């Protein structure tokens, strides 16, 4: 886990140490985790540009059986404004693993992708992995235009919007 996070941070192009993104800091207690930020691709290109959105996560060790089919669960709430129109979304993630090192949550309901979020308990940070489903086509073969795999880091939202305003993104 540590090595994956280190690779993600090394893969992001920066012009100076001051330009390094501040990672979103998660809040944790013995039964839950929560936090928010802006997902950023580890290797940004024109092809993997995201719709700018703030994502908020709430995860709990209990009570998810009816929501996700697993006892532990995570809820992702996102807010964005593509084209100036406010949009809010909610997704539910199954928790596959929850221990003192990491929490691994997955969402395989999207047509094209299987999404995985890894919450690093020790460092209180999060990374994500999208994997394109091999046989998924989507409307007008949209799935085939997505990369096979894409990794992301969760940047602190204040840091993100400050850097954006300063033209450092």
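Q: What amino acid sequence fits the structure above?
A:
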């Amino acid at each position: 886990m540590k090595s994956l996070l280190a690779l993600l941070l090394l893969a992001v192009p920066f012009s100076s140490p001051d330009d390094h993104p501040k990672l979103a800091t998660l809040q944790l207690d013995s039964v839950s985790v929560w936090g928010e930020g802006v997902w950023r691709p580890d290797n940004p290109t024109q092809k993997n540009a995201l719709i700018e959105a703030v994502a908020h996560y709430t995860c709990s060790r209990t009570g998810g059986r009816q929501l996700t089919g697993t006892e532990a669960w995570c809820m992702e709430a996102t807010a964005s404004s593509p084209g100036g129109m406010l949009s809010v979304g909610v997704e539910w993630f199954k928790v596959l693993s929850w221990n003192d090192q990491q929490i691994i949550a997955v969402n395989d309901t999207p047509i094209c992708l299987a999404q995985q979020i890894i919450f690093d308990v020790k460092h209180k940070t999060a990374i994500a992995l999208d994997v394109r489903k091999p046989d998924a086509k989507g409307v007008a073969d949209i799935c085939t235009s997505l990369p096979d795999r894409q990794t992301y880091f969760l940047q602190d939202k204040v840091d993100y919007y400050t850097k954006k305003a300063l033209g450092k993104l």
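Q: And what stands out in the fold?
A: Residues 1-15 have pLDDT under 50 and may be disordered.
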